[in-house]
Amino acid sequence: MKYSLRSLMIVVTLVCVVVGGRIEFLRRQAEFYEQRIEYVVPGRSKGKTRVVVSMRHRTLAERYRKAMFRPWTFVDERTKEKP
Predict the structure, then answer these.
(1) What is the pTM of this model?
(2) What is the pLDDT of residue 53?
(3) Burial class (CB in 10 A: 0-12, 13-18, 19+), 17
(4) What residues does each domain of the chain span?
(5) pLDDT in tens, 47-77
(6) Which of 12-16, 17-21, 52-56, 74-78 has the lowest average pLDDT?
């Protein structure tokens, strides 16, 4: 099979667009959860619930920031309790 330089450049461009879109999505999700941290901390929740929700949003923001460097990975939004 022969591939032309044009078809190779089209494939490379499409891959870059898809990966760039995924990175932008991860960045926006991280910013969303970072904004939710600021919203929840002074919010209407009381006591321990406020801290738990804030920590969960902080954890999710960190997971999305880390996934930006490996856009092929998926972010699990379920909370995982550490022992």
Answers:
(1) 0.74
(2) 78
(3) exposed
(4) 26-73
(5) 566 677 788 889 999 999 999 999 999 998 8
(6) 52-56
DSSP 14-73: HHHHHHHHHHHHHHHHHHHHHHHHHHHTTSS--HHHHHHHHHHHHHHHHHHHHHTTSTTS
CB atoms near residue 57 (< 10 Å): 20
Which contiguous run of DSSP H or E holds residue 12? helix 5-40
CA distances from 54 to 16, 23, 48 (A): 34, 24, 10
CA dihedral 51, 57, 62, 68 (to 10 degrees): 180
SS3 82: coil
Contacts for 36 with CB less than 8 Å, ≥ 6 apart: 57
pLDDT at 37: 80
